[in-house]
Amino acid sequence: MQKPTTNTPQLTNKIFLVGFMGVGKTTAGKRFANYLNYDFIDTDSYIEQEEGISIKEIFQSTGEAYFRKKEKEVLNQLIDNKKQLVISTGGGIGASEELMKLMNKNGKVIYIHLPFLAILNRLKDKNDRPLAQDLNDEENKQKLEDLFNKRLPIYLKASVFVDGHNLKKIGKEELCKLLLK
Q1: How many domains does the chain have?
Q2: Domain-located, residue 24
């Protein structure tokens, strides 16, 4: 006897969350992974664990170029991993044309967007982001906004867009619909 065939679409094994720092990728990623019964990995935490120091310390000791190289290595490792994963990427991964193409080719990429002022409000009192230091200084705010504007066109190459203000409203059913688009 032959099994009946179904037309139920299958979800991808890899779901990548991209967006600027502070938009909620890690928080949403943990929830989404729980909904889907996938494993969750935050690339920044993964790198910190591998290196034994914080991202800020990596930037200080070996520089941003080393960190970006490490991000690329980690992303490739995670793509090669056979597990079903929700991957919260560091803000720079989704801002790389090359890595965005790689993610789109190997899974579903969800861009979480917030307006710059909302991001600024979330980051202004935090000191753990190497590219977002002393945001009370106008020059530093402008540098961060310039970085946001530079990365935005690449983030927009993601396959799914989500408003960061509405992340808490996305339930399991709506997430699955987004992923099947």
Answers
A1: 1
A2: yes
Cα angle: 135, vertex 161, 42; to 5 degrees: 60
Assigned domain for 8 exists: no
Give the pLDDT of residue 14.
95
pLDDT-wise least confident of 80-84, 93-97, 103-107 = 93-97
Q: Is residue 36 part of a domain?
A: yes
User: Does residue 3 lie within any of the structural domains?
Assistant: no
pTM of the predicted model as reported, rounded to 2 decimal places? 0.85
The CATH number assigned to the domain holding 107 equals: 3.40.50.300
Note the pLDDT tens digit of each residue in 134-178.
555 566 678 888 989 999 999 999 999 998 888 778 887 888 777
